[in-house]
Amino acid sequence: MNPPIRFACTGCGKCCTGHHVPLTLAEARQWAATEGQVVVLIEGFVSDGPGMPVDQREHVLGRSYPVSCGAAELRVSVTFAAFNPGRCRNLDEHDLCRIYETRPLVCRIYPAEINPHLPLRPENKDCPPEAWQQGPELIHGQMLADPQLVALIAASRQADRDDIATKVAICEALGMNTSALKGNGFTAYLPDMGAFSTALEQVASAERAAWSVHVVDPALSAKLLEHGLRTTAETPQYYAFIGF
């Protein structure tokens, strides 16, 4: 048995600074409606092939969607996130959240992990040591101790599954059709928010697009070409490639 993990927020504001907060589709609409910037992060993999983490197969399949890439099928995962390169715009001068009652699911779930394959490791979080030395039990053994938190995580995972087809359609409508290979990096887009808001309401009219995978390493590119995928190593103009 692992020792229980306790947690109580100290209100330091570190988790609200320098982090792009993943949003459900409904939350992305709300963020856009209040003049917030959304960043779009895309990664892809081949079913039971390159980029597929075998130990997470069910999880990654459920939150991905098939697209055409060269002569093959690529499954892409799309994250819409609140763009917060610095302090979250909803933090007040006392580092308190102005939208606390309506904050995104991910903020409600923090510091727990949404991915069922990622264990909670306090040393990987921004919270000060005293946050882990007080408060109620967060994890007992390997189980979350708060049933409300369990329900929030389940809702977040379900939203990933429910939203993915629409997110992909929005990406295609806006020309965001270059992915990175899962495990190798992300492609990151900062869409014009006017066009993004329009696409949110007109996804039904979007046509399917041909996708590419951004790969820098020649050996990895050759491996993907063997699977029939279309790759690119050109310097991106409309997105950033964030490699691992």
UniProtKB/TrEMBL annotation:
InterPro entries: Puta_zinc/iron-chelating_dom. Pfam families: CxxCxxCC. This is YkgJ family cysteine cluster protein. It comes from the Bacteria.
